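User: I need a structural model of HEAT repeat-containing protein 6 from Cyclopterus lumpus for a docking pre-check later this week. Nothing fancy, just the predicted structure tokens so I can convert them on my end. Input:
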Amino acid sequence: MAAHTGSFAPSSMSRSDAPVFPPVPLSAEAAPFTPLVADSWRLGSSSDVDKQFSRCAAKLRALRADSSQLREQLNLLLDQLLSENYSKTLEPNISIRPEDMCSLLKHVSCLVPLSQEHLVIKLCQLVHHLLNQLKVIMDERTLDVLLTYTTSALKVCSTWTHSDVLLALSTIVYGNGPQCHQHLRELLGEDGVLLQYSSPSQPNVELRRVALTCMANICLRIPGQAPLDDQYRSVSFRVFLKTLHSPKPPDTDELFYCMVIQAALKGLQCCLSGGKWKFVGEELGSALAALKRLMFQGTPGVNVEWPTVLYPAPLPQYEGLPAAKPAETPQSSEPPKDAAVSGKTSGVRQAFIYLGIHSNKGLLKIINCKTVPSLQKGGGREGGRGEGESLSKPSGPSLYPSWKRVSSDSEFSDPEGSAQSKLRLYNARIRQGALHCLLAVVKGLEKRTLYGYWSSFIPDSPIGGPPPLTLITIILKDPSPKVRACALQVLSAMLDGSRQFLAVAEDTASPRKSYTPFSFLLANAIRELHRALTLALLAETSHQTLTQVIKCLAHLVANAPYHRLRPGLLSPLWKQMRPYVRHRDVNVRVSVLTLYGALVTTQAPLPEIQLLLRQPEGNNSSTGSFTPQDSVLSWRQRDGESTPPTPVKPSQRSSQTHSPHVLRTPEEVDSAPPWLLQLCVALVTQPREDQSDSEGAGTEGGAALEPSPVRLEALQVMSYLVRGYFSLAQACLCEIGQVSARCLGETEPSIQLHGAKLLEELGTVIIHQYRAENNVPESLRVPMSQVVLFWSDVLSGPLNAALQSEQHPTLQTSACDTLSSILPQAFAQLPDKTQMMCITVLLGLTYSENYLVKTAAVRALGVYILFPCLREDVMFVADTANTILAALDDRSPNVRAKAAWSLGNLTDALIVNIVGVDFQEELSDMLLLKMLQAATRASADKDRVKSNAVRALGNLLHFLRQSQLTRSAFQRPLEDAVLALVKTVQSEATMKVRWNACYALGNAFRNPALPLDSAPWSGDAFSSLCHVVSSCKNFKVRIKSAAALAIPANRGCYGDSKRFSCVWRSLAKALENSEDTNDFFEYRYSDSLRHTLSHALLHLLSVSQSQDMPSLEASLAGEEGRNIKEHLIKYLRAEERGGEGAEEEKEAGGDSVTPQQRIRGLQQTLIKLKELEAEEEGREEEERSKEMVVNFLEDLLQTCKEP
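Assistant: Understood. Predicted structure tokens for HEAT repeat-containing protein 6:
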């Protein structure tokens, strides 16, 4: 291939005279040679190809079908057109218009009769030639004409022409499958020509290959295009799968058969990637079996009996070796010592491959090899595996398979062009194509279905005998770096999103001897993946494939449950990654940082990672792992800089923190910043010293910084460190802030954005530290004075410019989020000028034309409104309210959603201020009315707006005073607000919206000024809550509604005895049905539901009057009463401990938290009921009913007092 490509250069310059360059004498002072871009010296000239095409097209258009010399002229003109090269890589000035090409092909197809088969072949070759090189999108008319012509040629012309016709057809239909619907029946129908030629019984292998290619191009889906009809896609899929399973015909050349398999694999991939695909019957298992076999196509030493179908199973499926060909055994069981420790590529790779597959101790032995880091530093493996091997031979016998010693696909291009070299190349392409198909299967398959086939592709720990053939085998042993990279991509796709599946893995307990639990098998699989990928990490020669290895490790780390596994998996990986941090390939460095980011985010904070972060960067612990500083000089270390390590500051060199031999006291070790943090700071701020990278992130003092991807990933890792391990990084708070400020001061928007994100993360974790519920001791918090100083520096720095950067709205958005992450206590201690600046900027940005900026500004105001120093400021509350009301009418649903959230926060602040009479009087009645009306309108918006709008309605109804409720201006809005809540409770909205609406009604019931006893809307409010408490499928909605029904503080709020009886019966029915659910996720809330219902029933008993006694007696006297008594006993004894139920009891005003307090409350209820006096009318019935209720409560109390 390389030689063939090189031959294009002279031929491409043969059309015009080459430029004459003046001779330049060789000297030290001569300017460096700069090669010209290909053909740049004649960019201004018109293309000869264009002229030739135009001349031929004009002559062809002049021809008529009745011309006497038609055949000769067509033959000549077609030859001339075919002789040209239309590739724009060689002829950049080609400007042939698509319409001219389409017009020419349509006209020529009318001139060439199907009887002239030689001309038909030349026309088909021209169609393929032009469409393939010019990449023209045909119009529908041209597509139809050419399809009609080629399909007719397949019917009329001789078989010897069909190969060229099918080749033209495959080019015509490329990506046009859905547009070919009129011709699909004759191509892919029951007796379609493509089905005939693609059949395994077709003797002509070339016809079979081209037919399969044609079918693949029909199934190919261009992004944004409709998929091919499922009927024809299914037909094609079955043909491709049948081809993959069919054996090689006896008299077929191996190379031709490889080309057939490649075409089938391409078609299978197009089918799987062309939209949603549903496997029928055993199709999935059959496809996976074929792909697994082809993953090892042409692999020496692999001679197994492959199954035709793979079945899902939790245990590994090991392929059996055929008895006729016993496996070869290695010559010795231990590699020579000098080979194991050799610094040469060949010896190291041979040793670790052998040890890695046949011994669990292989990884430890390789980690002890001190010379491995030098392989990556000097790039000794960059030139392929052969470069290291050419330096010296490994001493001792070779343990490395001979087929593994080739360096890459480039070595398949044998100088002599032998068939064996081509066969190796074709087999590698088959393996690569099979892995591409497997990747499409993995991405398109439901994770739940895919997990059943893990054991076929991912091994667990070696258990003796020959190792299973899995993706790991390819990753470690395939000679082609492209194939290894594909296998790594498949493994990464399988690991991505597997956290829920892998969460079952556990090996902390000793395994059972009678059987191996599935959790232990999964844990073994994770350990085996760690072991194998670590070996691949040390072995890989290709930079691109090495990047994939590290990314695959990052996927594994992000999804594995290390808190359920024995410690020790992450420490070797952490230390082995250090040499690659200074790898000369920028993509490798980025992927290393990605892996470190995964390590510090997985189940953070992990004790193992905490220990690693605390260790000095040069600590050579007893694990036997190496550090890059032990063997080679850091690539970041400048000459003459050898000062001892000190705590990191942005001005310090990263190299100053890399000295491994400086002794530190335990106090210094604990106070020193983590090595990873120092590394990231250096990568972001320090100039890079290796100038081999072409990417530069800018200059500082004439020295280029790290490339942007590296700096961005380093900033991301810093954010992860701050989020998960802030206790280790908080000593460097101001220094990290300076790094962020420096990033904000740069010109590149992505760097600025990540700097702002880092500031936001810092603010968030500080707020988390100061939250009372987190119980962080004051000695472990960042001192308040330091927090204030930190934010003072930040707000006086370049963050202001970022807030006003209108040309970068994403940066403005992130800057607003940063402002919202200020600790409220620290904000109160900032200078008044700084506070005013923050508020003014946020209020101004709510009028931004960009919806992202407006959304972030409105959200930040919603955060500020809860600050203790601001929520009592009536002017700030009023300004914020007016801004939020304007945002609620925005056309963007995102803005409206955040505005509703901020309005909910603002009304929460009103409830906090409800104790202050002055605040209520100073707040404008008209503003409250506007908020009530806006929240009512928002409750009819989308669910994400509605959920917070109903929360705001509940708060506002709670906040309104008697003087406001009696005003006529409030009457109708008040009724509309309550009815909006009732409608939301009864609606089919999401459950979160409904339980928020129930909570809002309960919040409104807290307002003693609301006329619950007489208002016409109160009946609807109670009936809606009674309905959902007994019938809603969602238990959290029932819990919220039961809590709301228990909130009214006096009997009058419940209305007449009929409404009171309705509330009681609904609660009793809900208690009886509290376990009726088929959904496990709801059943877990059943204890909380019974807890809340029991509290509500006791509350109703405590406020009941004499007129309620008959209905209570009717409920408590029968079977329902015994059920209620049983649950009340559990509640009073605190046998049902619903976490959420306890919260609902608090919200409902219940002070009975301990069993003693609950029993004391029941005693008070009993005393009150005994003192009730019945009314004159119905006195006897009420007295009798009261006596029964009292007896019920006395019996309940006596039962609860019994031990």
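Before docking, keep this in mind: Strands lie at 699-700, 703-704.
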